[in-house]
Design goal:
globular, 4 helices, Nuclear Transport Factor 2, Chain: A, alpha+beta, 7-stranded mixed beta sheet, two-stranded antiparallel sheet
Length: 188
């Protein structure tokens, strides 16, 4: 049998944002970032004042890659633009150290509400009902940076999931056409 070089990893199944995971610096960073993004005012904060991302931040959503800090941040905001409210609920996480910081690979459920009323059939772990509930895979890269939150900044964000799960309720509620669902969402 061939031996392969390995690095220690923090691996856990989680049931949402369990406080016990804050012991890891990257997971503590994610708690803070997710609160600022999902419930706080991070989305309206100018990129230059964003303590979470590097100036050369890269964003990848299902293979559509945007580079260049502010442009990448704006691309990430566009994905969440159709939602009036959203929440990420982690389910599985692997974190390992790199030469420049850390990487995090995980699975989380994205819950979201739409501006057009409809039946809320998706339920998060707290029991709250949502218009949309979809699993996704996340891969983040962090660099050590004293100017960042908790000494870290995200340099790359890769998201993978079933986009149709997100847009099907928008089509059903008349927010977009089926053609738009297959050719790209309108700009938020």
């Amino acid at each position: 049998m061939t031996a392969y070089p390995t690095v220690p990893a923090y691996i856990t199944v989680c049931h949402g944002w369990e406080e016990r995971f804050k012991e890891h610096p990257v997971w503590a960073w994610m708690f803070e970032f997710s609160e600022a993004f999902d419930r706080g005012n991070l989305k309206s904060t100018p990129f230059a004042k964003n303590p979470y991302h590097t100036a050369d931040f890269t964003y990848n959503f299902n293979g559509a890659v945007t580079t260049g800090g502010e442009a990448a941040w704006n691309a990430s905001l566009q994905v969440y633009g159709p939602f009036t409210e959203h929440f990420h609920e982690p389910a599985f996480v692997v974190i390992f150290e790199t030469a420049v910081g850390y990487e995090l690979i995980g699975i989380a459920n994205l819950f979201a509400n739409l501006p057009v009323p409809g039946e809320q059939t998706k339920v998060d772990l707290s029991g709250k009902k949502w218009d949309i509930g979809a699993p996704g895979c996340f891969h983040f890269k962090f660099i050590n940076d004293a100017t960042g939150s908790r000494g870290l900044k995200m340099s790359e964000q890769n998201l993978y999931g079933d986009g149709l799960t997100l847009v099907a309720p928008m089509v059903q509620r008349g927010m977009i056409t089926a053609e738009q669902a297959f050719t790209g969402l309108p700009k938020a």
